[in-house]
Protein 1
Amino acid sequence: MKIPFLDLGASYRELKHEIDTAVSRVLDSGWYILGPEIDAFEAEWAEYCDAKHAVGVANGLDALILALRALDVGPGAEVIVPSNTYIATWLAVSAVGATPVPVEPNPATHNIDTTRIAEAITPRTKVLLPVHLYGQPADMDPILTLARQHGIAVVEDAAQAHGSRYKGKRIGSHGDIVCWSFYPGKNLGALGDGGAITTNRADLAEKVQVLRNYGSRVKYVNEVQGMNSRLDPIQAAVLRVKLKHLDDWTERRRTIAELYTKGLKDSGLILPHVPEWANPVWHLYVVRSTERDALQQTLAAAGIGTLIHYPIPPHMQEAYAGLDMTADTFPLACQLANEVISMPIGPQMERQKTADVCNVVCAAD
Ligand SMILES: *Cc1c(COP(=O)(O)O)cnc(C)c1O
């Protein structure tokens, strides 16, 4: 048996002709920075996300950094982040000189526990930064209410949530700015790095547009100290092709997730919990086991690839040793890090293979 965690080559091969044609179009055009391909993708991505504006940037981390910069978040400011996210969420806060203030997850959904946000808010809090982890939306209504009450902005890390819906509405414009990654392994993935922000606020879209391009609107006239963080037109052309297939590919992920949920219901594992208002896109199918490492080894021995998202929470990383936090500071984040394991999932995974995975999991104990 050979079941990879995710087969990116298979994704390319399925659309090879369309993608090759799109890439050739850019190569032939002689236009390799910003330009018509970026404009077209931005319009299509904004429409897909139910947002007024989209701005393409170099990657998901930069999208977060540019969002915070557009909101004038800097030294002295605090930004509320999940304790159990991918480290990029925290790194963006640190990159602008602000302080990440972690909040523990809801143990059922693994998304930020909205009942614990209020106690983390201080007069320095400038942004609430929820993450739609594994492709499942965070509970946005309480987050937006708190933000309004305290006069603080909301930035969403939607790097795993392309197409996901909260109470029927697509993720893309609930908060002030929504940040996307098109890293190849994401649900909408480029053939290299890519990212974007979406927003309903014209002022913020314009700020990110200027900041991503050296702080310049007119060539060689620089109004602010910007970055070079532009989406590559070749990647934009690839993303335009893939966007047309995104809903289909999400449906295939849904089918696989349903098969796992049925096939693993008696496995003894803790399975994903989906609140009735959430419409997840199954970037990851994450289960929990106190025997996680043994389970991963059993699956590996059977030729089944799994990954751990994520083995070390940000506060326990050497990168954040300066915060002087211990495992006890955020015990839930640490517990999840020790127990989670992500099953193989992807649009090209054959349905029957989920049964093979379930059989191996259920036989192990
Ligand atoms: C992938 C990811 C990012 C970063 O995206 P890059 O494009 O790799 O910089 C940020 N946050 C989360 C939750 C992610 O999964």
Protein 2
Amino acid sequence: MLSILSTVLTFLALILIPCLFISRRLSVPLISFTNIRRLINVAASQCDEEEESGTSGKKEKQERLPNHVAIILDGNRRWAKKRGQSTEEGHEAGSRKVIKIAMDLFTLGTKTVSLFAFSTENWGRPEDEVKYLMSMFEKVLKSEIPYFQRHEVKVSVIGNRTNISESLLGSIREVEEGTMSYKDRHLIVAIDYSGRFDILQACKNIAKKAKNGLIQVEDIDENLIDKELMTSCSEFPNPDLLIRTSGEQRISNFYLWQSAYTELYFPNVLWPDFDKAEYLKTLTWYQQRERRFGRRV
Ligand SMILES: *[C@@H]1O[C@H](CO)[C@@H](O)[C@H](O)[C@H]1NC(C)=O
Ligand SMILES: *[C@@H]1O[C@H](CO)[C@@H](O)[C@H](O)[C@H]1NC(C)=O
């Protein structure tokens, strides 16, 4: 009798204590079996990542956690309208979510998070809204520098800088310089960015190098283009997973070259309502996808 009891107690200690520990670390409530299953999946893939990868089985498990997640932040305006609030309040609510979700993603093992904050096409929005968004970027980037430093998040801003105001450029430089030494967590913010713009500027750089005799036409290959794209600032330039909130199913000129093999996910949730539970759902969906990279299609 005593030995059965001690077996049961040992079993509980071996299973429950690590579970509670992991749950505390990931700050996910241990409320349901599905959550426990997710936790075990996530923990297993995190352990795998810490080991040297050897067998192909391990490699496959590794692929189930996205290294790079790109997000098209959509639905702030609709969210505000539904509540009878102003567009600005919608963007404000959306911006409060951004840093929180990015941190959740990092905690769950993602290394690079890209945010499509302002597209080249967004210049066509009402002047007041554009002005508001620009001053919001300036404020958020600047005020969050101590937070990024505390959590060791490297921040890079990509996009066309020619039409960006001096004061926003100042904040961009400040946040980039203040966080450039960090390696494990990388936040990429796309402002006045578009996929076509990125490919265009890469072409121009390559043409200049060819004209100056630095490279030959025969040297131009996919690798070289990868290096000239603005995402070359990341260790993982191509997103494994792209999320666009609010139910719209378009890439809208975000990463074009980089999304060739990306899993695309379109949750029917407006951006300010996207939370960690939604991301866990996304992750479960992602882990069930067989990542073929076009090989067996
Ligand atoms: C440059 O920015 C201004 C607002 O600051 C905007 O009205 C204009 O459309 C932008 N120009 C281009 C070419 O994007
Ligand atoms: C960058 O923006 C400027 C001004 O908005 C524009 O004239 C220029 O063509 C853009 N560059 C590229 C490569 O699209």
